[in-house]
Amino acid sequence: MTDASQTGRVLVVNAGSSSLKYQLVDVASGEALAKGSVQRIGEDGSTTTHEAGGETHTKEVQVASHGAALDAVVAAFREHGPDLDHADLVAVGHRVVHGGDRFSEPVVVTDEVLAAVEKLEPLAPLHNPANLEGIRVARERFPGLPQVAVFDTAFHHSLPAEAYTYAVPPAWRDDLAVRRYGFHGTSYAYVSRRTAGMLTRPEQDINVVILHLGNGCSAAAVAGGRSIDTSMGLTPLEGLVMGTRSGDIDPGLFAFMVRSGMSVDDVDSALNRESGLKGLTGTNDFREVQELVDAGDADGQLGFEVAAYRLRKYVGAYAVALGRLDALVFTAGVGEHSPQLRSAVCEGLGILGVELDETANTARVSGERQISSARSRVSVLVVPTNEELEIARQAAALVRR
User: Fold this and answer.
1) Cβ–Cβ under 8 Å, residues 311 and 345
2) Burial of 369 (0-12, 13-18, 19+ CB in 10 A)
């Protein structure tokens, strides 16, 4: 018998500052029946892309606002299918980056919820305002459907106090809610569950380090399906070397650069948009970094090595935090598609019992797979993430309760 909470279809919306991405997900099968995006909202040269039935439809259209973008999405469904009016929709699920210390699980959006998320905007000024705009326009376009907010930070609410607490003045912690929150939680929830499935063990019985590696990167230590530590902190800037974000730095660097003549906003922008791999190599695209490495470029090699070294440090630290490491998992775009980085990370982890099967690692295959050798004491896995499916399942489960 099918669990009623895992049936129906959910329209998943991920609204950015100038884009809107979407998928129509069948919760029971896990299939994306259609997906697409609207790019360059409010700019010249806006485009819509809609994929359904094995065909891709792209159109240039002027899109002045997120409301107009959602109108374009509805029109694409009407023209190319499936028709949303007959799609058995049970909810619209929204990705919201920051839920602060209030939202530890998905919630049906009400006016009170909207107001609470709006108060969190200082914690995620680049993301939450756009996420909120997507929710507002969806409430107008689909007034009869539950709107469900799923928070990137929610999975990490299980962090123990010693992991989430910063050693800063009490007023910062108490009045401004300064602490480690962590991000990519929706991805970690999905990957943790799939890892248990691949190992054919109950999720509550395994200890895993998951590396979510894309343009934004983070690591998480997951014990029994619960996050006990993660690399991103109050904001997504902390932790690993990323496409354009610096990751861990001396906190004194910020004041040093301000005293050197830069404004606060300029330093913040540089650390978030001009640092990381871009600052080290000139590009934030890891494929281009690999091309530089292959060509013998010194900056490309240094950038690659800095990123790999930081990853090994975090894996080692999290193995100690977990006490026992059953699996190391690579996910997201770079994690799923860069055998060179996976090899560089695992090469330094023999002390933990990690041994890679290089043939399996470099095989030109996709999907879930094991890439560790038969002798490895730790399973090394590649697990493609599916945040849209996780949002859809969480939204469906909530509205079916």
Assistant:
1) yes
2) middle
Residue 263, classed as helix, strand or coil, is coil
Residue in the structure block whose two tokens are 């892309």: 49
152 is catalytic: yes
- Dihedral sign (CA 60, 64, 65, 71): negative
Question: Which DSSP helix (H) or strand (E) runs through 48?
Answer: strand 47-52
- Are the beta carbons of 289 and 283 closer than 8 angstroms? yes
The pLDDT-based confidence of 46 (bands split at 50, 70, 90) is: confident
- pLDDT > 70 fraction of the chain, expressed in percent and rounded: 98
Of the candidates 310, 317, 153, 314, the one whose C-alpha atom is nearest the C-alpha of residue 227 is: 153
**Residues 292-303: tens digit of each pLDDT:** 999 999 999 999
**Of 287, 171, 181, 295, residue with least CA distance to 232:** 181
Could you read off the pLDDT of 351-377 as tens digits, one per residue? 999 999 999 999 999 999 999 999 999
Catalytic residue among 3, 44, 152, 250: 152
Tokens representing residue 391 in the block: 């949002």
User: For 168, left (φ over 0), alpha (ψ -120 to 50), or beta?
Assistant: beta
- Straight-line distance from the first to the last Cα atom of the chain, in angstroms, rounded to the nearest whole number: 17
Helix (H) or strand (E) holding 294: helix 286-294
**Rounded to an integer, what is the distance from CA 385 to the centroid of its chain?**
9
Partners of residue 210 on adjacent β-strands: 220, 329
Q: Which amino acid is at 345?
A: V
